[in-house]
Amino acid sequence: MKVLTGIRKDLFLYLLILPGVIYFLLFKYVPMWGIIISFQDYSPYMGMWKSPWVGFEHFVTLFKNPDFFLIFRNTMVISLMNILFYFPMPIIIALMLNELRLKRYKRVIQSVIYLPHFLSWVIISGITFLLLSQSGGIINKLLVSFGFEPYNFLTNPGIFWQLLTVQSIWKETGWGTIIFLAAMAGIDPQLNEAAKIDGASRLRQIWHVTLPGIRHVVITLLILRLGSIMDVGFEQVFLMMNSAVTDVADVFETYVYRNGIQQGQFSYSTAVGLFTSVIGLLMVIGANKLAKRFGEEGLY
Questions:
Q1: 3-class DSSP state of 251
Q2: What are phi and psi of 276, to 5 degrees?
Q3: Residue 143 in domain
Q4: Which of 119, 131, 181, 198 has the smallest number of Cβ neighbours within 10 A?
Q5: pTM given for the model
């Protein structure tokens, strides 16, 4: 009865969240039944309920695959580079924007840095090819004009991971500042005034007031980012991949696409996807416990 009373009291709030709940039920939870086929020798003609069970055979095949450690390494390195170099950039840009006093100038800067987010990875990859192509790229034309040899940016395995990281920073940094700017707007301005009275410089105010004020947001987003550590962005990697950089570009998402979509190994590719999801779940649980151990709120 207490539950019904609470629902009646906040009926409009529950109606407000109802579309979101329905969305997650239909498109997130119901499809989870599909992981069953990772334990089957699934055949589309026999269906999910009549396909023979094979247990953990697909997982054993994955771990015995000679390419497993190569794919795992590529996925982890790309993700870790994004965490180390991309993740802090929205925080830094948000801190810089927060220090701007001219609102009109601030709005112009925000609009300019938000724009790349709305470009698809196809366009971003096209711009990258126009800039870095060895034969006709703008950067290589400039190098040649200064007497240097053209550089193979796009087919050099040694800089492929760095190239992906730079693309992510350019495309998503501006959009990522929105959450941090919103968090900074919630900081009590009296704290900055008190720090100013105590003689704190702008850098000191940022270090002792602004950063602690958004610390919980930073930790929450970092935990969520660790949960998707096995997701490096299929479209970006797929568009930038070529035969010269396959050894450093092949990740779990491209591996699943190749085996699941192109070769029709639905059960095996589902098993690979389930493995990456379990890794992400363990990362979230571990990071959340670590955050709580250090006195933070965490996700739950």
A1: coil
A2: -65, -35
A3: no
A4: 198
A5: 0.88
